[in-house]
Automatic annotation (TrEMBL):
Keywords: Cytoplasm, GTPase activation. Belongs to the Rab3-GAP regulatory subunit family. Residues 820-858 are annotated as: Disordered. Residues 729-1378 form the Rab3GAP regulatory subunit C-terminal domain. The lineage of its organism: Eukaryota, Metazoa, Ecdysozoa, Arthropoda, Hexapoda. Residues 32-434 form the Rab3-GAP regulatory subunit N-terminal domain. This is Rab3 GTPase-activating protein non-catalytic subunit. One of its GO terms (cellular component) is cytoplasm. One of its GO terms (molecular function) is GTPase activator activity. It comes from Gryllus longicercus. Pfam families: RAB3GAP2_C (PF14656), RAB3GAP2_N (PF14655).
Amino acid sequence: MSCLLRPFATIGDIEEVKRFLYKKDYPVGREWLQECSLSVSSMGDHLVIAHKRYMVILKSKWDSHEEVKMKYHPSVYLQVGDDNDDVVTAVLCLPLFAHGKSFHCGPDWTCIAVGFSSGYVRFYTEMGNLLAQEILHTDPVIHLKCQSYEMTRSSTAQEQTEEVYVMYKSVLCVLGGFGLFQTLRACRSQVARAKANCGDVVPAPPLIYKKWGFQDQAVITDCEMAGLATSNTFNHLMTTSLCQDFGAYYRSGAPQMSLVVAVGRKPFVGFHYAMEGGAPPPFKDMAMAVASKLKSAIGQAVPGWFSSTKKTNGSDKNKDKVVTEPVEPMLCRFGLCDALRFGDRVVMSPNKTLSAVSDGLGRVLLIDNQKGIALRMWKGYRNAQCGWLEVQEDAHKREQARTALFLVIYSPNMNCIDIWALQHGSRVASFSADDTKYGRLLYIGYGFLGLNNVLLKDGNRSQLPVVFIDPCGSLKEIVVPFHFALSAKDSKRTRDIHLLKEMKRFIKSGDHEEEEIVQEVQRTVSELQTVEVQIQTIETLASSRYTLPKALLTAVEVCKHKLTEKNRDIQSIDASSKTLLYMCERLEKLLRFYNFVQEEHQKPPKYSTVVPDHKSAQNLSNLLHAPEREVNNLLNLMNTIETVSGKSQSEARVAFRHDSRSAFVEFVSCFEIGNHISNESQMIDLKKNVSEDKIQSISELMYQGTLYSDTSLDDWKEYAHESGIQPLELMRLALHFWLHKRGGSSIEAEMLRFTALLKVICSLADVDIICAEYNELSSWWREVRRVLMDSANPFMALTGAIICRAVALSLEKDKEMKHLASSKNKNSSENDNCNDSDGCQDMSVTPDDETHSSVSEWENVSRDTCQWTLLIGQLEDLALLDTVLKQKPWPGGEEPPVVLATTGRPHMCHLPYKRLSISLSDILKNGKGSVSELVARWLSCAGLDPRRLIDLSDIEFDNMEQQEGEHDNSPSHRQRLVSVGITEGEKLDVEEGAEACLMNEHHTHTLDLLALLKHHFPYSLSSSVLLANLCWEYMFAWHQSPDKLEALEAGIACLQVVPSPQMKHGLCSLVWSTHLKHRFEAAANLLHKAGKVPKERLCVQEIGISDLQLPMFLDSCLQFLDTFMDATVASGEGRSLSVLRYEELWDCESGGPRPLAEMALAQPPVSAPLLHLHCQLAMALHMMASFSVKITRPLSALFDGVAQAAFFADLTSNPQLPGHNPGAKLKSSRSQFLLRVVRAAVQTVRGVDCPGAGLDARQANQWMSKCHLLADVWGIDGDVLRRQQVCELYANGFDHLAEEVVPAVSDSTSLASQLLVIVGQRVKHMLENSDNFREWVSRLSPSLYHWLKSLNEGVSPCFLWSSEDTTQLLALVLQYLPEGNNEYQLALHMLDAMSIMNEEDDNARS
C-alpha cells in the first residue's frame, strides 16, 4: 500500500469567499492563497481565511451525497482591525476542550486568535464575537503558534504545557495556557449574557505573559519553542569556565532554561536560551508597567477620568506612546553561521528534537535541536513549506506501539510534495499535479487545548497534522503507512497489516459494487507476503458482516494457489502454512455447501409440503414405525392444542430481516475453521457457546429449503458429505431447525419428509457408531435425546422423538438384516468345507444365530427403544402442559373485576403474567414438585377464588369415604359442604345475593384448562398440593414487595381452604418461619418501643410497610394464626389424605429439590399453647394499631415476663408459659386496655345510606367478640366490658343498639349507676339549650340542680337521642336501681323534671 494525498474536504462557495476577501481586487488569480493568512483547527471543525482587514470563518458540515463528504461552509464574514492600516498578519484556531464531555464529540468551542500589524492580538469566538484584545508589542505580529499539553514521551523528556506564542520581529511573547483559556471562557460567558440582555460586557482583564527578546542575531523571520533544555553538570561547568574568569561565581547545578530556535540572518540559525524565572526587572520599569496597566483598566471602565475637558489642538491628537511589558533578553549561545544563507521558515517536530529549516537558496536542513548541528540537507526545494507526520504502528501483539517520523516538503516551484523518512531514510512518496503549484501546506502540531493536564486515552494529537489546500478550495490530507519507515526485512508484516486495514476500510465503506470488492480482495491477498497476516485476513473476511461469499472464496483460492505454487510437497511446509492451507480447504468446502443450501433456501416451497395431506393413523403408524394407539394420541393431542391455542391471542414479536451478507457471516462464524489441525481429514465441528439466534439462523438456512422443496435428498447428501461437517453436528442442527420452525398445516407431510432427511444424515456416519448393542445405549441417540429434552417446544420435541425413534428402528433393522446376511454367507461357506458331518453342523450354530433366527417368534427391543418410548410418553404430558401455561389466564387489564361471594372481597389478587418456557430437562431437574409450582404460578395470574380449585373428583379424596365411614355424615352432605368450603360446626355468615355471583368466562375457561391438565397430572395437581403451591406463590410475591398486602391476603385465603389438615399445618409452619415471623416480630418490637403506631419512616425502615398499612398487616397475621391454630387442632385427629403419590413421569428420575408438599408434611407438630399465646399477642397488637391506642411498653403492660420470654420462640419447642392466674396489676392493665378498645369499637357504628335502614354495627360487634375472647383468655369479667359497651352506646345516642345488649349484663345495679350519669348529662344539655332555662331550673330540687351542675358534658355530638329516649332510659335506670339506694331519689327527681319539660314541650307544640 502506497502513500496517499487524499481529499477529505472542500470549501463551499469558494467564489463568494474570494469576493469578500478581495473586494475591489476580485477576481484574483490562482495565487490568491499565498496572500492570505490561513489556519485549520486541529480537529478539522473550523477553517479561517483572512486577507488584510477581512476574515471569513468556515465551519465543516457532513454531506453524504457528495463524493467528498465534508464541506466547509462560510458561517461568519468579518471586518476586523481599528483602521485601514491595521491589517491581519496571522491567524490561529484554538479548539478548547470541555471537561465532563467525551473528546470523541469534538471541542466544546473554537477560539480564533488574530494577530495584527499594529501589534494587537485579538481573540474571537467561532461566531465572530470579540472576547479580548491586548497589544503585547508595538511591532507587527509575524506568527501565531501554539503548543498543547502532552505527557512525557520518555524519562529524559520534559512534559509539554499549554502555551500560545506570539512572534514579533525581535520579541517572542509566551502566553500561559491555563490563565489564558480560563479568561477566554469567562469572556465568552460574559458575551453570552450580554446578548441575552442580562447586563453589559465586562472588559477582559490584562493577559499574563512572558516577553523574551532576541539578541546577537541580525534578522529573525521565524522561530520555534523547543521547551526546557536540560544540560548535564559537566557541560554546565565547562561552559561556565569558558565564558567567565577563574574567580567568577558559578552554580553547582545547571539552571532551567528554555530553548528557542530562530532562523534568519547572521547567524542563519540561532539557538537562544531564556532563563526560567529570570532576573527581576528594574524598579522603574516595573512601576511604569503597573501604572500603564492601571491606567488602561480604569480608562476602559470609566472613560474620561484621564482625559482633559479642554479642547485640544491638532498637535495634541497624537496618541500617547503605548507602554508594554519590559523585554527579558535571551542569550544566543551558538548558531549555524552562513553569511550567504537566509533562513525563511522553521518547523519543529512533535517530539521537539528535530527542526526543518528552509532557506532562500532552495535548501531544506534537518537540525538537531539539542546538539545544535545540521543532520541532513535536501536540495532543490525553493520556497519550501514543511510539515511533520508522526505515524504509529498498529499494536496487535506488542505491548507498546512504535512511532515513525516523516518529513513532508512542499515545493511550489517544482510543483510537488515529497515525503521523506527520518532521519536518514529515503524518499517514500512524491505527489505532483497541476493544482499543487499555488497551494499552501499547513502544519498543525497541536491537539485539544484547555485540558489542564488531563490525559486523554488516545493521546492529545492533531487529527489533521498536515493539510494541503489548493486554490480551487480542495483540502487534502497526507496518509503514510508505518511500514515505509522500516527496512525490507521488518516491513513485510507491517506492510501486510496496513494492506489488511485498507482492505477492511474499503469493504466497510459500502459504496462499492460486488465486482469491485472482489477485485480489491483479490489484489490485497495477492500482495500479502506473510502467512500470519494471510490467516488473519481470512479470519477477518470470515467474520466481517460486510464480506461477500464470492470475495471470501476468491481470497481462499488465492491463498491456496500461492501455497501450492511455492510448495509442491505439502508435507514439507511449516505449521503456519499448513494451518492456512487446511483453513482454506475447510472454508472452500463450507462456501460450496453454503451456495447450495442458499440456492435451495430461495426456492418457493412445494405445494404438497404446505397444503395439509391428512393421512390415516394406520398409514402414519406404518411409515413412522409407531403403534397405532400412539399415533392416535398424537393426532388427538394436536386437535386439543389447536383448540386451546385458538382461544388465546398470539404474542407479538419483532424480528429483523437478515440480508444475505449477515446470513453468510453467521453461517461461517459458527464453525471451527481456524484451530490447529494435525490431520487433514479431520471433520468440521461447531464452535462452542454459539448463540441460539445464530444456530437457528444457520439451521433454517440449511434445512428449510430442502424440507419444503422437491430437491433430491441425494444431492443434499452429496454436498453435505463434501462440506466435511460432522454428521452429529448436522443432526443437532436439523433437530434445532425442527424444534424452532414455524408451525404448518401439513405436519404429517413434514414429519415424513423430515424422517427421510434424518435417514440421509445418519447414512453419512458409521452405522456401528449410531446403533449400539441391545444391552447398551448409543452415544449418538443419547445426544439426540438430550437435545429434545432441552427444547422449550415440547410438542415439536414430541414429533421429533417419534421421528428419531422411527429412524433408529429403521437403522437397527437394516443392521440386523446385514448381520443375518453375513451370518448366512458364513454358514454356507463353512458347510461347503465340512463333509456334512453332524459335529460340523453343530458347530455352525452360534447363540447369536439362535437369537436372530427367532425374529419371527420374538421381537428384540433394545435399550434405546425403551428410552425412546419413555421419552415420548413424557413429552406427551409436557406438550399439553406447555400449551396451557402459554395461555394468559386473564387477557384483560391490570385488575380483573372478580367478586368473591364466599370471602366478601371485591376481587382476588392476581400476579403479573409472564410467559413461561419449559423443557423436559428443566422439569426433571427441578424435581417432583415442578409441575405443581408451574401450574400454581400460572393460576396466581388468574385471580381465581381458591375455593373453586377444590375438586372432589381428585385422587386425594379416594380414601375419605372409608376414613369418615364411622361418622354420620352422608356423602351427599359432605360433598355439598366441601364444595363451598364449609367446615362442620362453623358459624355461617351468609350475604344476601351471594348465590347469584357467577364466574366470568375467562375463569370458566381457566378451570376447564386446569381440569384438562389434571387428567395428565392427577397427583401433582391434586387440590391440597395445588392450593399449597398457590399459597406459596402469593407469599413469595408478598415477601418481595411487603407493601403489597393483597398478595398476603390472597396467600392466607388459599391457606384457609387447603383440604388436608396435615398439609395445612405443615404449610403454616413453613409460611410462619419463612415469611411472617420476622416481620411480625419487627412490628411487635416497634409498637413496644413506641407505645403507639410509629411514623411512616420507622414503619417502612423496620417492617417494609407504611403506618397506614400496619393495621391491615396485623389483621392478616391474626387470620393466619387463627388458621394455624385450627390446622394444629385438626391435624391431631389422625385423618389424612393421600397426597404423596406422583405420576409415572418421575418413576425413572430422582433428585432435584424437595417438593413443597413433602416439606410441609414433614414438619413437626407445634405447641398449641405457644401458638395460642401468639394469637393473643396478634389480637392485642391489632386492636392497638387499629384504634391508635397509646400504651407505654404494651408487651410489658399486657403480658407477664414469662409470656414475653416465650414470644417468637420456635413453635415446636416447649418453653415455660404463663399461668392462668395473672396478677392484680396485670389484670387491671388488661381491663383498662379492653375498655379503651370497647370505647373505640363503639365509634365504628355508622349510619346506612338507605333511608330507614338504621345503623350498621357489624364491625363493632366483631370487635366486641374479639374483646370478649381476649377477656375470657385473660381472666377478665366480661360483664365489665358489656356495661362499658352499653354505656358507650347510650353516650353516643345508639339507644336501640344498647337496649339489645342490656339483657346480657349481670350486674344491673352498677349498670344503672353508670347510666344515671348519662341521663344527667342529657338533662343538663336539654336545660342549657332551652329557652325557658331559668323557669325550669327554678322547678328543680336543689340537690338535683347541684348534682347536674357538677356533671361534665358527655353527650353525643350528633344528638341522635330525643327526650322520649331519655325518659325511657331513665325508666330503665329506675327499674334496675334498688329503692334504698341514694341514687334512686335522685333519679325520681330527674323523672319529675323530665315530666315537666315534656308537658311544656307538648303545650308549646299545641
